[in-house]
Design brief:
This protein is α/β, with parallel strands linked by helices and about 375 residues long. It contains 12 helices and 12 strands. It folds into 2 domains: about 110 residues, no CATH class; about 230 residues, Spore Coat Polysaccharide Biosynthesis Protein SpsA, Chain A. Strands 3-2-1-4-8-6-9 form a 7-stranded mixed sheet, with helices on both faces. It has a 3-stranded mixed sheet with strand order 5-10-7. Strands 11-12 form a two-stranded antiparallel sheet.
Length: about 375
C-alpha cells in the first residue's frame, strides 16, 4: 500500500514539476500601440446576470481602442431577471456619446449546450474578423484590445488564450476558489510552455472568425453542455498546432467573480469536471487523472491513518510533499496576478482540497448538476 502511494506521489511530482518549469518558458507580452489595426467583435452570452452587468459595462466603456474598430454583441440566453432592462438603461445613458456599437440578440437554441449556441449565434452575426469572448460576470481591462491587436499583428495566431483570475474578497470561500483557479492558470501557461495546450478559459479567448467557420464551430461536441472554450481550442490545435498561442500579459487579464456559496461552487466544478472524459487531448486526460489520483490517494491515506493502518508520520510525509509542490505551483500565478495576500489561506485550503476534489469527481460521474437555473446531465 505504501509503495502504491509512493508511486502515485512520484508521478504527480513529475507532472507538476514539468508544468512548473514550462511556465517560465512562456515570455510576457505587454506591447500596445495607439495605431489600431485589428477589428474585433466582443461576444458576451448572458443568463440572469443583472447584478453583474453594471461592472461589466463600465469596464467596457473604459476600453482604450478605436470605437469604430470593435462592436459588442450581448446574447440573451433566455434570462428570467431584468438583465435586458439594465442593458437598455445603460445604452440610453450613453446614447450620443463616443461608444462602440452594442447590440442585444436572443440565443438560437440548437443543441444541448446553451452557451455554445449563444456564441455560435453571435459569431454568425459578427461584422468583424476577430472574435473575443468573455462572460457577463467579468470585468475587462482598458488595454485589452490594444494588447490583442499588437499580438495578432506580430504573431499571426489563429486562436489566443489569455489570463483570467478571480476578484476576491477576504473570505475563506473566495480564497479557496482562487487557489484552485490559480493552479489551473499555471497549468494553462505550462501547457503552452511545452507546446501542448491543455487548458483555456472562455472568459478570455480570442480567435479568427474565419477559423471558427472553417472548423464548423462546436460541431462534434455540442451534446456536452460545457466546454465552449476547451473543445474549440482542441479543434484549432489539431488543424493549426503552431497557431494557438498564449498571451502572458497583465494588460489582457480579465477578472471574474467567485461563486457565492459552497453549493454553487460544487455545481460549477462538477460542470467543469463533467467534460473531462470527452477531451481529445490525451495530455489533458492524463493530467486530470494524475491530479485526481493524487488527491484520492491522500484522502485514502488519511482514512487508513485514522483507522490505524498507517502511521501519522507516513501520512505527514505524503501531505508535506503535496503541500510543498502545490504551494510553489500556485505561487507562479499568484505572483503574476499580484495575489500573494491570499496565501494566508493556503494551509487550510490544502487540507480541504483533496476531499473537495474527490467529491467533485464522484458527483460528476453519477449525478446531474444545476447551472443558471437549469439541470444538466454529464
Amino acid at each position: 500500500m505504501i509503495v502504491l502511494f509512493v508511486v502515485i506521489t512520484a508521478i504527480y511530482v513529475v507532472f507538476i514539476s514539468i508544468l512548473f518549469v514550462a511556465y517560465g518558458k512562456v515570455k510576457s507580452f505587454n506591447s500596445i500601440s495607439e495605431h489600431h489595426k485589428t477589428r474585433f467583435t466582443i461576444v458576451i452570452p448572458f443568463r440572469n446576470e443583472s447584478k453583474n452587468f453594471e461592472a461589466l459595462l463600465n469596464s467596457i466603456s473604459l476600453i482604450k481602442y478605436s470605437k469604430s474598430l470593435y462592436e459588442i454583441i450581448l446574447v440573451n440566453d433566455d434570462s428570467e431577471d431584468n438583465s435586458v432592462d439594465i442593458i437598455e438603461y445603460y445604452l440610453n445613458k450613453v446614447k450620443g456619446k463616443d461608444f462602440a456599437e452594442i447590440s442585444i440578440i436572443n440565443n438560437r437554441r440548437l443543441s444541448n449546450s446553451p452557451k455554445k449556441d449563444a456564441i455560435q449565434t453571435a459569431v454568425l452575426r459578427a461584422k468583424f474578423e476577430w472574435i473575443v469572448t468573455t462572460d457577463a460576470d467579468c470585468v475587462v481591462p482598458s488595454l485589452w484590445l490594444q494588447n490583442f491587436d499588437v499580438f495578432i499583428n506580430e504573431k499571426s495566431p489563429k486562436l489566443i488564450v489569455a489570463p483570467v483570475t478571480y476578484k476576491t474578497s477576504n473570505t475563506f470561500l473566495d480564497n479557496f476558489q482562487l487557489h484552485d483557479f490559480l493552479s489551473l492558470q499555471t497549468a494553462t501557461v505550462g501547457g503552452f510552455g511545452i507546446r501542448n495546450p491543455i487548458l483555456c478559459n472562455g472568459a478570455n479567448l480570442c480567435y479568427a472568425k474565419s477559423t471558427f467557420i472553417e472548423l464548423k464551430g462546436f460541431d462534434g461536441n455540442n451534446n456536452i453542455a460545457s466546454g465552449d472554450d476547451l473543445f474549440f481550442m482542441e479543434k484549432v490545435v489539431e488543424k493549426y498546432p503552431n497557431d494557438v498561442q498564449y498571451i502572458k500579459s497583465q494588460k489582457t487579464t480579465v477578472l471574474t467573480i467567485p461563486e457565492p456559496t459552497w453549493k454553487a461552487l460544487l455545481n460549477q466544478r462538477i460542470r467543469w469536471a463533467s467534460k473531462t472524459s470527452s477531451y481529445n487531448n490525451v495530455s489533458s486526460k492524463v493530467l486530470a487523472f494524475v491530479v485526481l489520483l493524487m488527491n484520492a490517494s491522500l484522502v485514502a491515506c488519511f482514512v487508513f491513518t485514522i483507522l490505524g493502518l498507517l502511521s501519522w508520520e507516513i501520512f505527514s510525509v505524503f501531505f508535506i510533499i503535496k503541500f510543498s509542490i502545490d504551494f510553489f505551483f500556485i505561487l507562479r500565478s499568484s505572483n503574476f496576478f499580484n495575489q500573494n495576500n491570499s496565501l494566508f489561506y493556503y494551509p487550510l485550503n490544502s487540507l480541504m482540497y483533496p476531499f473537495f476534489a474527490v467529491a467533485v469527481s464522484f458527483y460528476s460521474m453519477f449525478f446531474k448538476y444545476q447551472w443558471k437555473g437549469r439541470s444538466f446531465k454529464k
